[in-house]
Amino acid sequence: MYNPTMLKTFLRYLLLLFSLLVLLWWWQLTPPGWMGKLDGIGYAVCHRIEERSFHVEGRQMPLCARCTGTFAGAFLALFAQIGFVRRRAGFPPRPVLILLGLLAALWAFDGANSYLYLLKQISPRPLALPTLYTPNNALRLFTGSGMGLAMALVLYPVLNQTLWRQIDARATLRTRDFFLLLTGLYLLDLLILTEHPLVLYPIAVLSALGALLLLIIVFAMLWIMIMREENSFERMDQLGMPALAGLTLALLLIGGIDLLRLHLTGTWGGYPLP
User: Fold this and answer.
1) Per-domain boundaries in the chain
2) How far apart are CA 107 and CA 110, in angstroms?
3) Which residues are registered as beta bridge partners of 171?
4) β 88-90/168-171 pair status
5) Are 88 and 157 in contact (CB under 8 A)?
6) Are 73 and 147 within 8 A, CB to CB?
7) Measured at the alpha carbon of residue 219, what is the angle toward residues 267 and 109, in degrees to the nearest 5?
């Protein structure tokens, strides 16, 4: 006789076993040490060019300067929303959305200028490519932080709209809250620019975990939609299965990209420049 409860229990244990196997596979694949594991995450989402990265006690950070700002900013902004606005599912007011679009545009503009500048640097012959200014890691960090904030402030209400049976339709934050978050991130960026180990080691962890967290959230929402469980959750302790599925799919993606990139480049370092 068909028993839905027994089937769900079986699937839960099956997912748990598969998740453990995926985690062990990825752990063995990536470089040793806790910083090596952070490198394994950054390796899948970032070019990790050494000249465009910060260094802590002579060691390259897991992510480049721009991605450090992006994913550390997203991590901190997500947890700020979890702590203060909880289940609110309304998007920020229109002025904030316009400002978020501006931050994303600045990120894209600085990234394009930086890429064109790189092409001119590595080309064996002079290229007539337009670059408006010489890029630097400080600009990469600040524009990355703005983009990370934009990603988190858009993703969080979408997550709440996907999860909860009873949705709080209020906006996740007000214009004043946005400026407080942005100011806090930029003050943190100023600390990062000191390149002091007491700042960079925690930021290395936050930035790598930020990249992983964003993937977990996206894949968890995908899992919920596949299982047709949208707007069916009432308590945090019911989110174990979607979170575990999101983590497993995120590690599979990261590990697959790690393997492909390692096969193509033969190194865990940044993309080699000519």
Assistant:
1) 27-265
2) 5
3) 90
4) parallel
5) yes
6) yes
7) 65
